[in-house]
């Protein structure tokens, strides 16, 4: 979790793989994410973080990343007419060392939930409706209409060898719908998904090639 990095966006790194350390989940065909807050760091000689409430504040009194996101969500909930939701870029870990971009979401709610013997934070994020969101630096980011299942991403990653199928780039990669979702293309089968770099993804937009 990183609240308001340079450029104005916040960032979260999620994982829904078996054995992931946090209970993140996807709902409503990828339009909604439920993201779990972070535990205290594991320190030698200290208690297991999974047995301790997730912290709102640091020992010195400043807000943790949980606290910053929680405060932003509560501020939006307090007056939706006055305040804008926090804008969050979401990345997903699909395997060790490989993170993929899932799109841009808005943080719309947060709460604390008791799980077994401890309290954890939960954050609700909704996929933005805009197809392209311009950052404060004037850059453009592709915003995916639906989240592609992790199993499909892994299959496509292996097939395309982790490179853009157009130019072979290994930088700033996106999972692209060959037949766009807006034109009936599926997110659920590898045959309709390919890897493109940001440049070729922006060039393609909703074209069927």
Explain what you see:
- With 209 residues, the chain is α+β, with helices and mostly antiparallel strands.
- It folds into two domains: 126 residues, SRA-YDG (PUA domain-like), CATH 2.30.280.10; 55 residues, no CATH class.
- It is built from three helices and ten strands.
- It is globular.
- About 8% of the residues have low confidence.
- It comes from Candidatus Desantisbacteria bacterium CG23_combo_of_CG06-09_8_20_14_all_40_23.
- GO terms for molecular function: endonuclease activity; nucleic acid binding; zinc ion binding.
- This is YDG domain-containing protein.
Task: Briefly say what this structure is.
By secondary structure, this protein is α+β, with helices and mostly antiparallel strands.
Walk me through the topology.
Blueprint: E1 10-14, E2 25-27, E3 32-36, H1 65-78, E4 86-95, E5 98-115, E6 118-127, E7 132-134, E8 140-142, H2 150-159, E9 173-177, E10 193-197, H3 198-204
Parallel strand pairs: 1-4
Antiparallel strand pairs: 2-3, 3-6, 4-5, 5-6, 7-8, 9-10
Q: Report the total helices.
A: 3
Number of strands: 10
Q: Mean of residue pLDDT? A: 85
What string gives the helices and strands in order? EEEHEEEEEHEEH
Rg to the nearest angstrom?
Answer: 18 Å
What is the CATH fold-level name of the largest domain?
Answer: PUA domain-like
**CATH architecture group name of the largest domain:** Roll
Amino-to-carboxy terminus distance = 37 Å
Main pleated sheet? 6 strands, mixed
CATH-defined superfamily of the largest domain: SRA-YDG
- Helical percentage: 10-25%
The proportion of strand residues reads 25-35%
Strand order, largest beta sheet? 1-4-5-6-3-2
Give the CA-based shape: globular
Low-confidence stretches: 130-145
Class computed from helices, strands and strand pairing: alpha+beta
């Amino acid at each position: 979790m990183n609240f308001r990095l340079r450029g104005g966006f916040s960032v979260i790194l999620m994982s829904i793989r078996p054995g992931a350390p946090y209970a993140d989940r996807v709902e409503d065909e990828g339009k909604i994410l439920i993201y779990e807050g972070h535990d205290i760091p594991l320190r030698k000689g200290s208690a297991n973080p999974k047995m301790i409430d997730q912290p709102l504040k640091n020992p010195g009194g400043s807000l943790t990343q949980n606290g910053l996101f929680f405060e932003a969500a509560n501020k939006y909930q307090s007056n939706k007419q006055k305040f804008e939701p926090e804008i969050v870029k979401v990345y997903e870990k699909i395997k060790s060392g490989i993170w993929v971009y899932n799109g841009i979401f808005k943080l719309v709610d947060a709460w604390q939930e008791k799980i077994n013997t401890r309290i954890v934070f939960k954050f609700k994020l909704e996929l933005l409706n805009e197809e392209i969101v311009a950052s404060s630096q004037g850059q453009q980011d592709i915003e995916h209409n639906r989240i592609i299942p992790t199993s499909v991403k892994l299959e496509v990653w292996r097939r395309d060898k982790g490179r853009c199928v157009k130019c072979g780039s290994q930088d700033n990669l996106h999972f692209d719908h060959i037949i766009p979702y807006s034109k009936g293309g599926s997110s659920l089968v590898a045959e309709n998904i390919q890897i493109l770099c940001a440049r070729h993804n922006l060039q393609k937009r909703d074209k069927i090639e």
